[in-house]
Amino acid sequence: xxxxxxxxxxxxxxxxxxxxxxDLRRSKIFWTSSVLVFLILLMAFFPTLFTSADPTDCAxxxxxxxxxxxxxxxxxFQGCDVLARTVHGAGNSIQVGLVSTLLAGLIxxxxxxxxxxxxxxxxxxxxxxxxxxxGIPFLLGAVVxxxxxxxxxxxxxxxxxxxxxxxxxxxxxxxxxSSVVAAxxxxxxxxxxxxxxxPARLMFRHILxxxxxxxxxxxxxxLGANIAAEATLSYLRVGLKGExxxxxxxxxxxxxxxxxxAAPLVWPSVFLAATVLAFIMLGDAIRDAFDPKLR
Amino acid sequence: MTDIKAQSDVLPGLDPRAPLLQVxxxxxxxxxxxxxxxxxxxxxxxxxxxxxxxxxxxxxxGKSVTxxxxxxxxxxxxAHISRGEVRYRxxxxxxxxxxxxxxxxxxxxxxxxQDALSALNPVYTVGFQxxxxxxxxxxxxxxxxxxxxxxxxxxxxxPAAKARISDYPHQxxxxxxxxxxxxxxxxxxxxxxxxxxxxxxxxxxxxAQIMGLLAELQQQxxxxxxxxxxxxxxxxxxxxRISVMYAGRVVEEAPVYDIYARPGHPYTRALLExxxxxxxxxxxxxxxxxxxxxxxxxxxGCAFHPRCGYAKEPCRQDPAPPAYAIAPRRxxxxxxxxxxxxx
Amino acid sequence: MxxxxxxxxxxxxxxxxxxxxxxxxxxxxxxxxxxxxLAGEKPVSDxxxxxxxxxxxxxxxxxxxxxxxxxxxxxxxLGESISGRDISALLESSWPVTVQLSFMALVLAAGLALxxxxxxxxxxxxxxxxxxxxxxxxxxxxxxxxLAPVAQWIxxxxxxxxxxxxxxxxxxxxLLLPAIVLATTVVAxxxxxxxxxxxxxxxxxxxxxxxxxxxxxxxIIWVHVLRNSLIPFxxxxxxxxxxxxxxxxxxxxxxxxxxxxxxLAQGIRTEDGPMVxxxxxxxVIVFLVMNLVVDLLYAALDPRIRYE
Lengths: 295, 343, 308
Hints:
The complex is a heterotrimer.
Chain A: H1 4-11, H2 16-25, H3 28-45, H4 82-118, H5 120-134, H6 138-149, H7 157-167, H8 170-184, H9 187-194, H10 199-235, H11 247-255, H12 263-290
Helix pairs in contact in A: 2-12, 3-4, 3-12, 4-5, 4-7, 4-8, 4-10, 4-12, 6-7, 8-10, 9-10, 10-11, 10-12, 11-12
Chain B: E1 21-32, E2 35-47, E3 52-56, H1 63-71, E4 79-88, E5 91-92, H2 98-104, E6 109-112, H3 116-119, H4 126-138, H5 142-155, H6 161-164, H7 174-186, E7 192-196, H8 204-221, E8 224-229, H9 232-238, E9 241-246, E10 249-255, H10 256-261, H11 266-273, E11 324-327, E12 330-332, H12 337-341
Parallel strand pairs in B: 3-8, 3-9, 6-7, 7-8
Antiparallel strand pairs in B: 1-2, 1-4, 4-5, 9-10, 10-12, 11-12
Chain C: H1 2-28, H2 34-39, H3 46-55, H4 62-74, H5 87-122, H6 127-141, H7 144-158, H8 172-202, H9 205-212, H10 217-255, H11 260-269, H12 273-301, H13 303-306
Helix pairs in contact in C: 1-4, 1-12, 5-6, 5-8, 5-10, 6-8, 7-8, 7-10, 8-10, 9-10, 10-11, 10-12, 11-12
Protein name (chain C): Oligopeptide transport system permease protein
Main location (chain C): membrane
Pfam family, one (chain C): BPD_transp_1
């Protein structure tokens, strides 16, 4: 607090976003999770920075060999390099997670805004739609969806992404809807409407900026959840399959041989948990910054 | 009224001849991350049986905090009573252990809150919330407690008390809910009743009914009543004496007629001048200029000086003006009370 | 109260038909060859093709198919799996252990969440509170697909504290580790909701009134505050039942418990379409009925809804 620059920034008038950013900058959780997220993204897009071994280079002769200079985490049942497979697993995880979350966010954004802004019949129909999706326990729905969508012989990436996107948009839609409803009832929005602002202008100038913070929080949390869901579906053999590398598949394969070799089970588990943790922490930190009274 | 009060009468040092309630130099501060807010800065007043003392002031002047400090229901932390004493019949309540203190609440000193809808628990019937008092403090059986609860609702004139006992707070109208609050406060025959803005949330017609009911019950029971309000109109009708609070201090204390006739503190005077009056119709209304001070940053000297027309150099310097005895049974914290009185 | 129940019932019926139609349509609609879809990637014999066509009325329109599917479902006739076993019988033999497991998990989770949630709300900002917050964060970050195999390996295999697998007539002890694992899927949110709700209620005006009434702190918390805090908690239980069903799928698969979840997982693995559709449809119905029960419980707890 004694830092003069901080004091100067503090004394300037600022909006909610400015306040939130100031809170965020001081949050240890925010920085920890940001660094983790950065590392994970780096791993997803440039796996070779972390390992030079080929994840598909497997030889049964090395089955369950222990850690060595060439393979830090040792070899799994198939004799593949555990480190290489785990690092390369990040790519699919992040890809499925990001795309499915964006898809869910887009659906949720449109439906939530429409329901909140138009109200009445549109709201009723969309809300019942949300009820129907929520009426199917998530994993049960995902199992049917994913099994249905994936074609024979493909790696399942598209199927899992679509499945997650189509089943997880409800929370985004609900948050968006209630934010829009709350914003719509604000006096200044009513005033803008009376002054003849067009619906589009109202939505993008006056309503969206206030609704976007809780939406971002939901997206961050959903990203973590979807990455976990991909691993779960892959574990149950309705997610990524065939030649695809996935933490879920690794766990499923290694679980049976955990007594013989724990490393192939432990490392993908650690990476998966760390990834999910990073996004959940990020979401938590942003929420705390925007809504301190929840703490 | 043949309750066994033995259990609640064993307060150490209780003196039946001592004044009913006496608050001396009470200081309450709120310690928050953003600094210390001094809500009450040396409030003092007393109360006799059967008497009504009005504590008057703008919102944020510390009147509700004072009331909650007397009750011992401030949230600690952030609130801290840093100095002062609250004597009930000679016993300093602030020095009692929490278990002893709890027996004073509702038994000796009870309180009514402003918004009865939020002050009542929404998920229990009013019958349960009334009977709970008898069960917790008097160890009554369920049936007896229920019978007493119905009696109480009758006393505060809620029609069909027997049927309404099993209704929930949200099923009552605003006035009826405030009657339930009054019944709850009077359940254990307290000697002191603190009413914190009891009628602010109500319609004007209902306000008069509730104030009438309060005055009547007070007379029946010879209770001391502390009426906390910002409404000078309410005060004139029912109060015997008035304590005017500003920035956590009692700036003037006087019998009600004296204060209306000749205020002794510039703040009281300004408050009176800001009331619309029929005999001054057509003349501009005077408002008090400026705003009450932030409790984290109370001005040195007399806290009112930045807004005061009488202020001179001594007002701007510590210590704050003492409580001058400006007339028999009257005090005012103003160096220039003679000018204000117009002498 | 009556209007509330009727409205909820109508909503549930709508959701019920919507949800079952979605599941049904996914399996059968817009398929070039729905029979091949049902059988997965296995070759289909002519006799099986005939049996499936008859069973699912594939020669009729989509709505007709849905009609037959629903009437069969509601009369308890789930048909046969691809491998020729009676699906109702499979379900009958597998549900008791799943119910036992889920019930144990729910009780464990709710008990811990309520006790720790209330305690950490009272001591807000203290060591216990921060510890609990970190603990819930960790639990939220550990997907069951990580926790179940790792817990089985550590506590079941390496340390040997618990049996690593459980049979059909599993004892309480044998199901304890899986139940704990399953409980972790819901306990973190339950705990956070309890804590937030108790914190909010502690600030409520009626708590100040209760204190002014001279009530003991214990009574204020457990009688006045908790009853109000249970309202959001109960709502959450409805959602959690779905989470537990999802979690049971993985838990039973990992711990080899012959319940509904592992049967379903088996059906998925063997690409047994009729079995998956049958099981999922029944579970959706169970979920919706349980949610209706939760709604009624909610009304019982909150008089403001009861007298709406």
